[in-house]
Design a protein that fits this description.
Blueprint: E1 5-8, H1 18-31, H2 39-43, H3 50-57, H4 62-79, H5 91-100, E2 104-108, H6 113-122, E3 129-133, H7 146-155, E4 162-166, H8 169-177, E5 181-185, H9 192-198, E6 202-204, H10 209-217
Parallel strand pairs: 1-2, 1-4, 2-3, 4-5, 5-6
Helix pairs in contact: 1-4, 3-4, 8-9
């Protein structure tokens, strides 16, 4: 069946938030007096819901996990100044082309709704993105298929018409758990090896290559 809807991750797929996220995580950990973690250790957590990034990274109580979220959000709000997060190369042009070709473009992100919508607005994605689903909109986060299922239910598209695109194994696993075709990108927070291990159907090094693969999926 011809592909009609593309479900996109945000962090590491559309927006280059890695430096901001890792810096904010490390500042949060230091502020709360928790055991320090390296940039590489923090990077591996990107893509999970915010609280889980800390509880997976450091052994802590549920209460401390909530405190990490609270402190992180305060630091993030201060440090997330206009222009600090750019889009990856070719993202905007490619989204415009896909939109003109008639694809439905949506976002499914582990980021909270408010900051996600702010990025969509500030990075000029709004003309092309028709639906945004955050971790706050579903019961079960990535890698469970809830975000994809909710997106398809709202848009009326079939599973076979959907392609899920992401940079982390959680994105690929989410897409596969929903029964969708998946594309992993290597320029974000994950690696090619992680994309392969998660079972991505396609792996690309440049966001623009999505168009080539979509053309190849046509009946």
């Amino acid at each position: 069946m011809m592909k009609k809807i593309i479900i996109l991750d945000f962090d590491g797929t559309l927006g280059d938030t890695q430096t901001l996220i890792i810096n904010t995580m490390q500042k949060t950990i230091k502020h709360l007096g928790l055991p320090p973690r390296s940039r590489e250790q923090c990077k591996k957590m990107i893509g999970l819901p915010l609280k889980q990034t800390f509880t997976n990274l450091i052994s802590m109580s549920d209460e401390m996990g909530d405190k990490c979220v609270e402190v992180y959000k305060k630091i993030f709000e201060i440090d997330n100044t206009h222009g600090v997060v750019p889009l990856f190369p070719h993202v905007l042009d490619t989204l415009k082309q896909l939109h003109e070709k008639g694809y439905t473009l949506t976002i499914a992100s582990s980021r909270a709704t408010q900051s996600l919508m702010e990025f969509v607005q500030h990075l000029n994605l709004k003309p092309y993105i028709s639906l945004v689903i955050s971790c706050e909109d579903v019961k079960n986060p990535k890698p469970q298929p809830d975000m994809v299922n909710k997106t398809l239910a709202i848009t009326g598209h079939a599973t076979e018409e959907a392609v899920v695109v992401g940079d982390a194994r959680y994105d690929i696993m989410m897409g596969r758990n929903a029964g969708c075709t998946t594309i992993g990108v290597t320029y974000g927070n994950g690696t090619k090896e992680e994309m392969e291990e998660a079972g991505a159907d396609y792996i690309i090094d440049d966001f623009a290559d999505i168009i080539t693969h979509l053309e190849g999926m046509k009946d």
